[in-house]
Write a structure and sequence with these properties.
10% of the residues lie in helices and 33% in strands. It contains two helices and ten strands, in the order ααββββββββββ. The structure holds zinc ion (ZN). Zinc ion binds next to loops.
């Protein structure tokens, strides 16, 4: 026969106990691990990155090439129609020079972040990435850049398979 517990030992912590630190404290660190399905469009996009190629999706109604690819055109409210490779060159749409790291500490050398509109993708389609081999003061909107890829053996099917974008030498 089970017995119901009606009273518990101990008492609620008082203000004085709290001030005097007379309580037990347990610090527990959670390390949740997440995984999620990338979906049809981004899965293909990541597979292509591993092969050193960048792919988008074309909508035959508005004639736009969406990069990163989407299976649905948000302007036409209809499914996109076909895969289309774009180039790994493009131009800087916007950029940021960050002197502060993710832990809010000042960095010795700034992180250069840019939205790059790839050649072959429609205007306004850009991927967020970092810039390399460029003096921060030289960066400008419209500047031509090219992807610097990791060697094939190091690629994992991730956006970081592109190390960074560097300026294209003007000839
Ligand atoms: Zn469309």
């Amino acid at each position: 026969m089970s017995q119901k517990i009606t009273s518990y030992p101990g008492h609620e912590i008082t203000t004085d106990e709290l001030k005097e630190g007379k309580y037990l404290e347990i610090v527990q660190k959670f390390e949740p691990r997440y995984s999620w399905a990338a979906g049809v469009a981004i899965s293909r996009f990541l597979e292509e990155l591993k092969r050193g190629r960048i792919i988008g999706r074309k909508c035959s109604k508005c004639q736009r090439t969406l990069v990163p690819p989407r299976m649905y055109c948000e302007q036409c409210y209809r499914p996109t129609d076909e895969w289309e490779y774009v180039r790994d060159t493009g131009s800087i749409n916007t950029f940021s020079i960050s002197h502060v790291g993710t832990d809010a500490r000042r960095l010795k050398s700034p992180i250069l972040v840019a939205v790059v509109e790839l050649d072959g993708a429609s205007p306004g389609m850009g991927i967020l990435h970092t810039l390399g081999k460029v003096e921060p003061s030289r960066i400008s909107i419209g500047m031509k850049v090219k992807a610097v890829w990791k060697p094939p053996g190091e690629r994992q099917g991730a956006i970081t398979d592109i190390r960074y974008f560097e300026p294209v030498e003007e000839t």
